[in-house]
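Schema walkthrough. Field components (list of strings):
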Amino acid sequence: MSVRTPDPDPSGDDGLPESLNGLGNESAANPAWLSEFELAQARRRLPMLYVEAVPVRTDGAGQVTDIGILLRATPLGEITRTIVSGRVRFGETVRDALFRHVENDLGPMAFPLLPASPVPFAVAEYFPIPGVSAFHDDRQHAVSLAYVVPVTGTCEPRQDALEVTWFSPEEAASDALAAEMEGGRGTLIRQALAHLGLLR
Amino acid sequence: MSVRTPDPDPSGDDGLPESLNGLGNESAANPAWLSEFELAQARRRLPMLYVEAVPVRTDGAGQVTDIGILLRATPLGEITRTIVSGRVRFGETVRDALFRHVENDLGPMAFPLLPASPVPFAVAEYFPIPGVSAFHDDRQHAVSLAYVVPVTGTCEPRQDALEVTWFSPEEAASDALAAEMEGGRGTLIRQALAHLGLLR
Amino acid sequence: MSVRTPDPDPSGDDGLPESLNGLGNESAANPAWLSEFELAQARRRLPMLYVEAVPVRTDGAGQVTDIGILLRATPLGEITRTIVSGRVRFGETVRDALFRHVENDLGPMAFPLLPASPVPFAVAEYFPIPGVSAFHDDRQHAVSLAYVVPVTGTCEPRQDALEVTWFSPEEAASDALAAEMEGGRGTLIRQALAHLGLLR
Amino acid sequence: MSVRTPDPDPSGDDGLPESLNGLGNESAANPAWLSEFELAQARRRLPMLYVEAVPVRTDGAGQVTDIGILLRATPLGEITRTIVSGRVRFGETVRDALFRHVENDLGPMAFPLLPASPVPFAVAEYFPIPGVSAFHDDRQHAVSLAYVVPVTGTCEPRQDALEVTWFSPEEAASDALAAEMEGGRGTLIRQALAHLGLLR
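Field assembly_structure (string):
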């Protein structure tokens, strides 16, 4: 995982903190996985499959009341905002990848309610060159399946996510928040709100 | 509510048992609502808006493991199968109607997780004449917005629903079950399973 | 049809120009339909089922390039903006209602491509009291199933729709346009754009 | 591309006939792409992103009347059935990939109407080991975004697709057809039919 470039998905590649992951030897854990070097190579040649989750809180009737945004420190010390995001591994189901990344980014006490249907509310296409789509990622061409995930417990972000901040739907749709979101994900938040019937 | 005809949605009209509802005086409770007579008239002239819910149980990762089907005794003493189903009242939101009918049909301890998005997985069109669509309802032209609703508690059906039976996705998709479902709702169960990625 | 109140769906009730419809004798054409008086009564007691269509133009790869908005003169002489909108009749399928209203509002040469799936991109709930939801309609409680409909021909609005104006996705999402839309339909346009992956 | 194993997506890798593609020199055309060897390596390490299309014919009101299934000869001379299917290239949008594979598999005169929304009706997960999901692919772990694509012209399959056969919705849902489909795609056809409201 590069420390030289802005990294929208620091834990996305393997879902493990660096400390547990050793010296980037993802392939040590499973021979089917890629080494860091191989992964870096592949990222310049193939679209990477990602899952993303917009954490939400709901009231008793299932209506979304709050949108969870992750506050994150980049390797360069910048503070940015993002959502749950990470790569799907070889041999892993989309559902398992979604569960793994939600747990990694929100902690083991978040008690997420993953969607019953595997159809995402949006497909976000991240290109290394800005402007091809609403989304960009310096590192790679990534295509993410995006889901809304209600959480019922307490979020204790792990890894480099510093905090989950809860916003009202109105705040979450604001230009101010969108400007702070990594890789154009303000657009994804608005797509989520529209899907939920909460975008005005 | 008629006792003369098969009635696919016995609690649909008002969400109250007959005994609580008195002599059809729904309008007594709220002047905006229709009397039984007026409702019967309207049913022959206007499409009625319904909501329906397929109750499901899920595992820890949100994957649906069981489909809940209501076993019901008709006024004529027949035993049939159906799902949660009922009318949207004047001034009521779709979400409130869905919550009300889920609670009425599954009891107050079902602890349903209503979907965050108001977009249904299917729109089922019930016509009084069989064959116009996959669905029919002798009483009326009804258009229902259908949702999958995970339940986390204990279902204690009220009113004339005798029991909730839980089926595996394979059983729920079977021709045998479809043949027992009221008004063609076996098709709706299969649409739900397809939406969930569980139809083979 | 009232001439006293703002009327978001002037042609919605019967799908016929006033001139053909005579003095409100809808029931003359089909005894199952309601007289104007009966319809007015029902509107105060039952949610009305509507369909709505956002007309779009697409490029050769199916990407939406333009959003069609109807410019309309109200009975009071105001100019407002709206989309294709109208009631589903008793016995009519949602698809047939959608086709009928698209043809009525865009003319016979619009050559619309109705969606293959009957699942709407949004369910819009219009209440007579403003503020219950994003949508309101002085006349009634209406629940509309909303679809995106590409048109390939020439739009020649009939009835009281004066003109179809084509906007870019950016223009269609603007606050300025939303302020001119009837009944809160600017929100529906944004939901459509989000569904299309075109909302920034 | 292997000639030793069943190949569910013969044209999927590059969208070019073998004859034009030369000796696996995909990378000659674009240095960002993978050589055949590199692609084969990556396939054992990363999930591959695919798009799939179920070709359909519709009537004037947009209702699907026929489902198109490709009859295909495998390199071993077997005749199997499949749908439009192929890989998304590095730097390519999902829409462009879908258009490219539809044109490759159905010919330049098919005049497809690609969906306005980028949200697929289903996400099909193909695993190299049968039984993990409904779908399998000996060669790789592939995740495909599946779309319904109406075609308005004449299909003249290119490459190794011998023929497009049109089936009624009932025929397309049959066990007999499902048994002939590659990689479990009979399930995907049924999901498409359910999405279209055509599965009984």
